[in-house]
Input
Amino acid sequence: MLLWLGEFLTQFYTAFNVFSYLTFRAITSTLTALFISLYFGPKLIRYLQKMQIGQTIRDDGPESHLSKSGTPTMGGLLILASIVVSVLLWADLSNIYVWVVLFVVISFGAIGFVDDYRKVIRKDSNGLIARWKYFWQTVIGLGTALFLYYIAQGPNETALLVPFMKEVLPQLGIFYVVMTYFVIVGTSNAVNLTDGLDGLAIVPTIMVAGAFALFAYVTGHVNFSNYLNIPYIPLTSELVVVCTAIVGAGLGFLWFNTYPAQVFMGDVGSLALGAALGVIAVLVRQELVLFIMGGVFVMETLSVILQVGSYKMRGQRIFRMAPIHHHYELKGWPEPRVIVRFWIISLILVLIGLATLKLR
Output
């Protein structure tokens, strides 16, 4: 929006030409989302407290979590609002990829909102019934995958980029739709499972989004993409603004979500953020790198799968509790230790993911 305004005003005062620079808009997108989060955060927390929209804690979880009962939740609304407003202000709204990401963020956020609403307002412990949650995730994820396949302009947009391998670039064809669906829905649920401790999910999300800002920039820049031998996809450059908005919104939310948390994001935040990372990974052709950089999300998800599978097949549990962050808590690790160590692991994995740009 402001890009168009800047282009109009440039004819009267050339200084407004700065609005056309992607790097400038990326920085202002981060700061805008951060400011919105910091300014409206306390207001939202007070409103949630007034409406008694508090988190319900599982009785079978770590005892240290019982004190968190009643902590305001659905703080993901703050994250989503910050992202959407910042993107609408600073991104090039003629770019279809921007609208695809906004659609996915808002749609998955709506699913999470219904789930949270039923849990904390209608006091339905089951929330949105699982089959309906996955049904709507499937509708949105599959619909997005089909749309992206339909609008693909060339082979670069549907090729699978294999990390560390320069010459391996297989065409996915219709399997692009299948992969896109699983990446979006899978990442959405993986971030949701990770969101169990104060700040545990938001910091890896910030790190991965920041890394994808770099991936989007080089993928959408013909010289950099040729130099790094990665597919050149012009439309991805504008996703830098989207990624930096996620970073800014995440940092602002972390201000209130850091241990001990004043607010939780709820499913409205975690489902939307995970889906956003998934669809951005697809658009910049870095699905496999997302698997590396989002290793903490993968680890949390696998721990749940293994726990459930082991109990059903053998009648025995592998971990004291799943997701795996609860396992370490029950082993006696203080919550901040678990959180920070998972952050460190996430940082290492993100750096490895970034290294794939050059190590090919």
